[in-house]
Design a protein that fits this description.
By secondary structure, this protein is of the alpha/beta class. Helices cover 44% and strands 16% of the residues. The chain contains 7 helices and 7 strands. The longest helix is centred in the N-terminal third of the chain and has 17 residues. It is globular and about 55 Å long.
Amino acid sequence: AASDVYKRQDVLSGGRLRLGVGVGWNPVEYQALNEDFATRGARSEEQIAVLRALWTQPTVTFHGRWHTIEDAGILPLPVQRPIPVWIGGSAEATLKRAARLGDGWFPQMAPDEQARAMIEQLRGYTREAGRDERAVGIEARLSVGQVAEDQWASYADAWRNLGATHLGVNTMNAGLASPQAHIAMLKRVKEVLDQLGLPA
C-alpha cells in the first residue's frame, strides 16, 4: 500500500519525489508495532528492494525474510522507475546502507570535521560497493531555528565545500506561528542564498 502512495506522489509531482528512509532510534516505536528493533536495518533493506521492484515491474513475485508477494503490482507505474531512495542517519551501518543501496544520504549535523569524516566514510563505502562515489547525493539541512540568519550563507557554503549536492531548509522550532510565516521564512532563506550565488 505504501508503494502505491509514493507512486501517486511521484505522479502528482511530475517525477520529482525522493523517498527518505530512516530506521529510527526508539525501541518503543517498534514495540508498538510488535516488531523486533534489532532487525530494523535489515528489514528496511528488504523493504527498499520490494519498493524498487514494485516501482519498476508490472508484476512482482518476491520471497524475502519479511515480505512475500505473488504476482502483484501497482499500475500505473511511477514516473521515476525507481523513485530515488535517500537514507538518513549517522550510524556506521546507515552510512554503509546508503553507500550500497541509497541514491542519497541525509546527514543531520553541522558542516564540521565530524561531517567531513562521515562523508569520507560514505565515499569509501560507496567505492567498496562498486559504485561511483557521486552516485550517492548528500542533502544537508539548514535549520533556521538553530542557525542565525547572518550564518546561513557560510553554513550553506561550508556544506557545498564538503560535497553536499542538496540543501534542505527546516523552519520548525523557529517560532513561526502560521503557514504564511513558514513560507515567508523559506523565501527569505532563498533571497539570502541567491544573493551569494548559492543554490537553495
